[in-house]
Amino acid sequence: MDRADIVDKAFREAVTSRNLPKGAAARGPLSDTEAVAIFRAQCLSRNLDRRSRRMQAEGQGYYTIGSSGHEGMAAVAAALRPTDMAFLHYRDGAFQTMRSSQVPGTTPAWDMLLSFATAMDDPISGGRHKVLGSKALNIPPQTSTIASHLPKAVGAAYSVGLARRNRPEHATLAADSLVMCSFGDASSNHSTAQGAINTACWTSYQSVPLPLLFVCEDNGIGISVRTPGGWVKANFEAKPGLKYFHADGLNLYDTYRAAQEAAAYVRHRRKPAFLHLSLVRLYGHAGSDLQQAYLKKEVFEGWEADDPLLHSARLLMDRGILTGDEILQVYQQAEDQCARVAAEAVKRPRLENAEQVMASIIPPKRDCAATNGPSEVTRQAAFGADFRQFDAPQPMSRLLNWALTDLMLEHPEIAMMGEDVGRKGGVYGVTQKLIDRFGPDRMIDTLLDEQSILGLAIGMAHNGFIPMPEIQFLAYLHNAEDQLRGEAATLPFFSNGQFTNPMVIRIAGLGYQKGFGGHFHNDNSLAVLRDIPGLIIACPSRGDEAAMMLRECVRLAREEQRIVVMVEPIALYPMRDLIEDKDGGWMATYPSPDRRIALGEVGVDGDGPLAILTYGNGRYLSTQAAADLRADGIDTRIIDLRWLAPLPAEGIVSALDGAEKVLIVDECRTTGSQSEALMAFLQENTRLPHARIAAFDSFIATGPAYAATMPSRRSIAEAARRLWSSE
């Protein structure tokens, strides 16, 4: 017999016989009316769980991880405001059903059953996944994430205080709101959770406003691994800057009391709090989980005897609010409603093809207030002595700095964050002087944690800012990449475009640094970014183009709500010369602020029959090689991709018009590099003979062999000669 049916039968029998579990009496500020509302939300959540299991058994539902045992979260929802953004644990169906009762016009049973049925009418994901979430309820969608939502909750909470001083055009959170983030006891051990909570403590310790409520739903087990008794309390009770609260999550009165106290502390003190709820897990981890395979029967039967609905029934009956018959009536009404609504939900159409599934990968465009940019007087005041240098050729690092200045002058919602971006001005000086020009609110020096840097950006984007996080080195991205892949990029997909987190991530990367850093400061692989659906990757090769591409990146984020990664070649930051020493051939003057390079627009130098298709450092080296080839009578055209994802297909085809052969030059490792996609593209879309030269599948060494594994001026020229002379 299904444990859900056993628990259901036991609930009915226990209420009828009044054989209810013992526990603390009802105490605290919860009114009778609110208590009944919470109980109704609990009953609805429980029966939604039961119905989802039946739907799966009938082939009409596809994912049954449930909230049974965690119905105490309805009391947490009751203690908060519906304007408080909530990043939910996957067991928080009761939170959503309760919050729905606070927002007129919402239909929790219909909405959630549509999600269970993967119906296209599902108001949050459009049938893409069973998620908890609602635009009307201020609940961004979450699936079965394991703590990856905590960093962005920190960022959203941070944005509340920042928006008080500088409110963005597209801000969504009220000035007195807080942010709630819930997770399980097992998830609290994840490095992402530990990092996010540490970041919250680090921020609070410095008295920076951070209205954030962490809610740890402690049911004592993570799938099959038990949490040591007392571990959560011991781990989080005495953290600096974090106020600890505890409640019996089976007791709706105690949960409401503690949640109300914690919320009041967070809202009025503007400091983070940790609400620890003791709960039970019913039915196992998910519908497919056979808990009897790893738990003794008396363990899960003990949890079932402590069913939170039984405790709620006891408390309501003891206070004389509801009779046993009335409790059973509420419960039966919830079951009948779920059965009736599910019968209709399963009839609704589902996604059928790739076009429908992919429709929300790219978010919708949004209206933005027109801007004419800053006045010349304002620009002169901001730039100071730099203003007089605009007509003098400069390296990439300086031109990027000026472009950032102009963009931040024009768009006050832009904020930068990262390690050393403020006072130091970045490891390579790209953000020098910006903290003096715009202050610490917009140039945020973060602690050393890339997950928290990207989480801060994601959360701030939820509240209308245009974040520009900096990852100091490309290799540093890897321990935080899931913040892009699993959180930022999936948000419009799982919300059907209703929630977005536009941003521009700047990453110093790629190889060719002379004598510095080895692998961790020279990483020549972009594969980890290239396969993220919807992500735009920009990679400039010269300073003036970098400035114009950065402006387009910001436009894409601000107006089209896109997530853009701009990979800035470290070796080209200071590059001045091209062929001869002190020839200044790779410097450029600063392009006027109205000039951009549009997404998909490639660069072309020359019109020779041998096309060299490349990007980043490859363009620089290919330009050098082209001079050597010209001496051999081989004329070239160098095509700079500029935009690596999505691949600028039309631009490539147009640039190849009149070419006879194509050499791909890719500084990234052969396996997983852009060259693989380009070889396939040329094979499928042209009849031109083509070849490639790419880096070896190796890490980068330091010292004299720093460039030994990557294409060089010489090896590019040799590859071009071989291709040109081949039949």
In a few lines, what is going on in this structure?
The chain is α/β, with parallel strands linked by helices. The chain has 25 helices and 21 strands. It is elongated and about 100 Å long.
Walk me through what this model shows:
It contains 25 helices and 21 strands. The chain has about 725 residues and is of the alpha/beta class. The strands form 5 sheets. Strands 11-10-12-13-15-14-19 form a 7-stranded mixed β-sheet. It has a 5-stranded parallel β-sheet with strand order 1-4-5-9-8. Helix 2 packs across helix 12 and helix 17 packs parallel to helix 18.
| Largest sheet report | 7 strands, mixed
Mean of all residue-level pLDDT scores: 96
Distance between the termini: 73 Å
Number of strands: 21
pLDDT under 50 segments (min length 5)?
none
Please state roughly what percent of the residues sit in beta strands, choosing from under 5%, 5-15%, 15-25%, 25-35%, 35-45% or over 45%. 5-15%
Structural class: alpha/beta
Helix fraction bin? 40-55%
Record the strand order, biggest sheet.
11-10-12-13-15-14-19
Number of alpha- plus pi-helical segments = 25
* Shape field: elongated
User: What is Rg?
Assistant: 29 Å
Keywords:
alpha/beta, 5-stranded parallel sheet, 21 strands, 7-stranded mixed sheet, 25 helices, about 725 residues
How are the SSEs placed, and which strands pair?
Blueprint: H1 3-17, H2 32-57, H3 73-79, E1 85-87, H4 93-102, H5 108-116, E2 132-134, E3 139-142, H6 150-165, E4 179-184, H7 191-205, E5 212-218, E6 221-222, E7 225-226, H8 231-236, E8 243-248, H9 252-269, E9 273-278, H10 297-305, H11 308-318, H12 324-345, H13 354-358, H14 376-383, H15 396-410, E10 414-418, H16 434-438, E11 443-445, H17 450-462, E12 466-471, H18 482-488, H19 490-494, E13 503-509, H20 527-530, E14 536-538, H21 543-560, E15 563-569, E16 603-605, E17 610-614, H22 617-631, E18 636-640, E19 643-645, H23 649-655, E20 661-669, H24 674-685, E21 690-695, H25 713-725
